[in-house]
């Protein structure tokens, strides 16, 4: 059990720190009149924490992370030879950038994002309407506004022109705003509220929006500005990275994988995380189920049966040299049980011994009929060995949406795009990212193509790859089981269910 948590449904209680198990299923207070519920500061703060609960589903099977990650070159979900994971082609649509408006994953990703927007709007209304006054109330409002800006950032990135609404009491159907107007809203909302925030996360505000998070979000917005509004803003992106660095509170972890351990809450790279606890949070982090084959139960002492779906493509796997420490992101080769013995399978009635070997390199021709152990699986996030079981005992690794290494690499890229590659490669932290991976540091011959590959190795499955491919002009390229596309689905379609509900979205 972790000793330090922010549990979102009670996120803003006075201690913000839990050392024992408590039933913390989210309570919805919107049906209770404010003059009956908000009797004291603690109750108002607990209510504000409800907005943060909306982050928790982000890395689930059918939410935003799946949409943006499977549509990139770093993750595939090919059908097995028993046709499992075909799912009527919904994953294939995402892989090949041919997503229809009825695609379930696209719909659920949309609902995740705008569910977050709606929760923020409700909390802001209730907080601002409350007559209770206390020190730090303005900070709470600022946090929720920037959290809402994060959800809108995801919306403009994924769907382009989207509805924009900030008034919880407005029951009219919102119209689509242009991507440029939503971009402007996100930028202005962050700039207007950033000074009201705590500078960085501490044990008292872990998991909450801080200036470090807000500066990083602005850096992301500016880094992708040319994609979003047709105007590059490399200088502003660099300045926001410098603002994060200037807080003097973040640093690279000496061991890359310390960022992804079960107990990673003390990582110096954490800028903004989604907090998970198998007992205390309502949503699950269950990548062991998504990626592992059933026989991996013997390795990790898993109580249920993993689903054998998500893996990296052979092409992406081959971007790592054998000397790259980060290649341990992937589980491949002969597998062993928890006692170190080789795992094998019996091939039906023949009695032949088949060794359990994850095969990372396999032909594209088997994309719709892969063998059961084809594909390198993700082991970047440490698996617990105390009986993982879906929706009972799930992973407790806090998921970093933003970490310091990304700030360093964004700064390096922004400098390169301004013609300062020599200066960029001399940054000590940029060199350290390579050194801790066991790789030689870059020199002034570094190219943008190589930087893209390096970002892939550093941030695999962290949710940034789609943006990177788009920004580097590689989105339409062919990769494993994906053909060359021509300007296809640079934004995803608005789900038909949303259009049916609100015709203004057509």
What do you see in this structure?
- By secondary structure, this protein is mainly α.
- It folds into two domains: 8-283 and 398-505, Serine Threonine Protein Phosphatase 5, Tetratricopeptide repeat (Alpha Horseshoe), CATH 1.25.40; 287-378, no CATH class.
- The protein is built from 20 helices and ten strands.
- The chain has a two-stranded antiparallel sheet. Strands 3-10 form a two-stranded antiparallel ribbon.
- Strand 6 and strand 7 (352-355) form a beta hairpin.
- Helix 11 runs antiparallel to helix 15 and helix 15 runs antiparallel to helix 18.
- It is globular, with a radius of gyration of 23 Å.
- Mean pLDDT is 91; it is low at 1-30.
Major sheet characteristics: 2 strands, antiparallel
Q: Span from first to last CA?
A: 48 Å
Number of helices: 20
**Radius of gyration, in angstroms, nearest whole number:** 23 Å
